[in-house]
Design brief:
The chain is mostly beta strands. The protein has one domain: 7 Propeller (Methylamine Dehydrogenase, Chain H). The protein contains 1 helix and 28 strands. It has a 4-stranded antiparallel β-sheet with strand order 3-2-1-28. A hairpin with a 5-residue loop joins β12 and β13. The chain starts with a helix and ends in a 5-residue tail after the last strand.
């Protein structure tokens, strides 16, 4: 009886917090606590928390703002689906797929990488089932993102030193893959706002590979001088690119036009996840080694504040409007 009483109390507490959830909200995963924190981006206040699976790494939000989807990388075979208005979580077993990591929400479906299987999986929330699997044939398929129109899928493949570009095809083939060789250990990546270039941060050689999306080839290599790059994000105007350097403890800022670093900020031990707010005025950087999120003013390029969400913050997502 005791566990049932504790569960009732936990659900009641979550419901009380859910009534005051901010909108918009910043969602932050805490890897060591195995929680998702809902944060008011205006002041860094944590409005609510919910438990997820072991070692959560990445999170995406549905288009309607009602659900968040978390890859439980440490647990090995589950996704957490969180009802944001109520802060209720349930887990979906993706077996036989294992080690889910990158995640993206597009077209009412949830796309995620399964590193151990060298594939992209797709979860259908409406049917509560896996409805599609797409193989990359590449080692450690890590991050995934889709183009705005959903006709291209990109993955970084750490162990194969490659980026996969999938183009939607007609007929039974479904998708056609092009494998682009890049630098050593590509991990973080982002698509330029105009969709013409994909930038991949190579974690093992300190370089960034710039890929022409239409030509499907590397057109430039930037020496970012990172010790172990983790995430890479464009600003919404496409002018700058932010890279977190886990081992160097820095945030590296690159001018996208000149392809040159313009500033290096000593931001703390093990910076990992990066999120640029939609308006492009600020960026949030998860400093996992110091258990806080740093707020960067993108006009002055200075850290203006820090806030705590839990132990080991990493993946983040923006919930533009949490439906009540």
């Amino acid at each position: 009886m005791k566990p049932r009483i504790q569960l009732t109390i936990a659900v009641a507490a979550a419901s009380v917090l859910a009534a005051d959830l901010p909108s918009p909200a910043l969602l932050v995963l805490n890897k060591e606590d195995a929680t998702l924190a809902v944060v008011d981006p205006a002041n860094g206040t944590v409005a609510g928390r919910v438990e997820v699976g072991q070692g959560p790494h990445e999170v995406a939000v549905s288009d309607n703002g009602r659900e968040a989807y978390v890859t439980n990388y440490g647990a090995g075979n589950t996704l957490s689906i969180i009802e944001l208005p109520a802060l209720k979580e349930h887990r979906f077993d993706i077996t036989p797929l294992m080690r889910p990591h990158g995640v993206a929400a597009w077209g009412g479906k949830v796309w995620f990488t399964a590193e151990a299987n060298k594939v992209i999986g797709r979860y259908d929330p409406a049917a509560n089932r896996l409805d599609f699997v797409l193989g990359t044939g590449q080692n450690s398929t890590h991050m995934v993102l889709l183009s705005k129109d959903g006709n291209k899928i990109f993955t970084t493949n750490i162990g194969s030193d490659s980026v996969s570009i999938f183009d939607r095809a007609q007929g039974p083939a479904g998708w056609n893959q092009t494998v682009v060789a890049v630098g050593k250990g590509p991990e973080g990546m982002d698509l330029a706002p105009d969709g013409r270039e994909l930038w991949a941060a190579n974690s093992r050689d300190g370089h960034v590979s710039v890929i022409d999306v239409n030509a499907k080839r590397v057109i430039a290599t930037i020496d970012a001088r990172t010790k172990r790059s983790n995430r890479l994000k464009f600003t919404p105007d496409g002018r700058r690119v932010l890279i977190s350097d886990m081992e160097g403890g820095e945030l590296v800022i690159i001018d996208a036009k000149s392809r040159e670093p313009v500033k290096r900020i000593a931001i703390g031990r093990s910076p990992e996840g990066i999120l640029v707010e939609p308006g492009g005025q600020r960026a949030f950087v998860a400093v996992a080694g110091e258990n806080h999120v740093a707020v960067l003013d993108l006009n002055s390029l200075n850290v203006t504040s820090k806030f705590n969400t839990g132990r080991g913050p990493d993946g983040m997502a923006w919930a533009a409007a949490i439906a009540k």
